[in-house]
Design a protein that fits this description.
This protein is of the alpha+beta class and 114 residues long. It has one domain (14-113): DNA Binding (I), subunit A. Helix content is 23%, strand content 9%. It has four helices and two strands, in the order αββααα. A two-stranded antiparallel ribbon has the order 1-2. The chain is elongated. The chain binds zinc ion.
Amino acid sequence: MRPRTSGAAVRFCRENVYIRDNYTCQYCNTKLPAKQLTLDHVVPASQNGPKNWTNVVSACRECNQKKANRTPRTANMPLLTEPRAPNWLPTLQLEISEDHVPPDWAPYLRLSTG
Ligand SMILES: [Zn+2]
């Protein structure tokens, strides 16, 4: 789950799609917490739409249901932005690991874990 820190493309996964889309439904522009977002296939899986960066967007449940198994065109629900593979690193997921703890802190941290 840890983000890569150099070079490679951003891994395709639910959370990274949400981050790319700024946790915003790509149909109605509503910003929502991750728990209330869904992944929507732009070209539905039932029409052989692939599961990748350019065919999957964040959508609220309402829009996802409304769009159902249709493309944005046939559903008359245009996307706010064209989905594409991101070229950033997901810095929002930074976490503190023991490797990055200042040495002076270590004795105190170890105390708490026994
Ligand atoms: Zn929506």
